[in-house]
Amino acid sequence: MTPDLSVSIGSLTLPNPLIAASGCFGYGLEYEQVVDLSSLGGVVSKGLFMKERQGHPPPRIVETPAGMINAIGLQGIGVHRFVKEKLPRLREAGARTFVNVCGTTLDEYVEVCKVLSQAEGVSAIELNISCPNIKEGGIQFGCSLTGTFDVVSAVKKATHLPVIPKLTPNVTDVASFARAAEDAGADAVSLVNTFLAMAIDVDTRRPKITNVLGGLSGPAIRPIAVRMVWECYQLVKIPVIGMGGITDARDVIEFMLAGSTAVQIGTQNFVDPFIWSKVIAGLNDYMSRHKVAKLSDLIGAFDPTPPKAGHA
Amino acid sequence: MYHTRLMPPVDIDATVIANARLSRDYSVLSLAAPEVGKRTEPGQFVMVKPAGVTDPLLRRPFSVFEVLRNPAGEITGVSILNKRAGRSTNKLYELDAGDVVSCLGPLGLPFKPVTAPTEAWMVAGGVGLAPFATLAESLAASRTPATLFYGARTAEELFYLEFFQNLGVKLVLSTEDGGRGIKGRVTVPLEDALKTVGAAGAMVYACGPEPMLKAVAQLAARYQQRSQVSVERVMGCGLGGCYSCVVPVKHGDENANLVRSCISGPVFDGAELIWE
């Protein structure tokens, strides 16, 4: 029997739970030469404002232990050029396209979503209320419960598309933000965005990236992200899309056990752009060894019974 | 964007055939990656890291130095010219035959070729020699007259001179300490040559430190010659996904003027780049 890897996020059914994370996959088309975009559960675009954005001057990334700090600054082509130049080609490639929407004001979020609602080939909207790297980049919504509620409510009124706010981990209690999003009508939440971080060059005493502060991603953050997904899963009924340092199928399973319906892979795609088929093979292998017919049966199937003492 | 004729990259867990330490800082790492070698064009690069580790996590970009062949002439892999500059390059310097690295490539846009009677002038600074071994081979194959202006810190850091001589490349050497060739920067003999360039002109290819690239591009322009420069930026993915390796250009294909050096480069028309 072929294992069933499909998962559902509201009305949306994905053939598998693997989604390429925003900011880590360009506009998707860059990766056409190494991966069949239709084989992924979904592709999240780079963050888009109404207008083009230049981003921060380089250097924009620095590697840290088992991770990296980035402050790209949301360089992007703007929603109109995306709809005109990228979306038709993504449709042609069979991608299920999630568009990451940014705004400096509540009105801008609404306007970008309206443009996307009229376009063909958008599967869902991921609301970026959590980018740590730019001033006025949505984080003021993502760090306030009422701000989160207000922006999700406003966007839900403006579009028929599923709305998935992406939450920041740089708050005391991320689950309360998932709850606020749910109360406002969000169809799902995705988490975590990057952890605010910095790195100093001790020889020059200067920052390692131009923006000084940036977002930490990669395997280093995985255990914190798993904990946050688990906290959200316990508090809300809408699907949770988990991410943070996933490198292989076992990491995917861990996020699903903690309550993720689907997962996003970001930094590891830089390390290994051929990761997708390897993870799918790994999921199939896990399911046959553990006699799991439906992958979605694992969502939240974490067993909190304490582990046995002794050797791991 | 990609030329249609370029082959898509492959990712190979490549065994280290040899790691020849040329000096305290430089080594030539030879990798068993025939599929990468077969697809490589001069000026393209590979993303490399020791396999199966999270330190380093990300790969680092290296120009393909040589396309390796066996005695029968079949392509067996590629080499990279590695200079120790940080954690990752230190680890690569310490690898031995039999170790395994992840090698993704070839990536990026290659040098645009030039043919006689126009001459090809390659300008290399230090580790910037890397893309010119394969370019010199292709110039030799097309019988294009070629000169290598090659600058290094010391005479001990001038490598592979015989390789270029055997291809019929004219060598113009310079060292910062005057230990061999002209004392000083490689741009000094380059400017002397530009003053007397023939009517058919020269295409100036350059790779090396950014101030050198800027000086070469500006010199070439001053003497009405075209240039192609290979830039190096902190790079995350090599495929256009992360937007970390951007460079400012006069006519960008995407956002205003910041383009990704991994897919719109690493080779750029020297007159197109905006120098800081």
Commentary on this structure:
The complex is a heterodimer of chains A (312) and B (276). Chain A is α/β, with parallel strands linked by helices. Chain A is built from nine helices and 16 strands. Chain A has a single domain, classed as Aldolase class I (TIM Barrel). In chain A, the strands form four sheets. In chain A, strands 9-8-7-4-3-16-15-10 form an eight-stranded parallel beta sheet. In chain A, helix 2 packs parallel to helix 4, helix 5 crosses helix 6 and helix 7 crosses helix 9. Chain A starts with 6 loop residues before the first strand and ends in a 23-residue tail after the last helix. By secondary structure, chain B is α/β, with parallel strands linked by helices. In chain B, 18% of the residues lie in helices and 33% in strands. Chain B has six helices and 16 strands. Chain B has a seven-stranded antiparallel beta sheet with strand order 4-3-7-1-2-6-5. In chain B, strands 11-10-9-8-12-13-16 form a seven-stranded mixed beta sheet, sandwiched between helices. The model of chain B has no long low-confidence stretch (mean pLDDT 94).
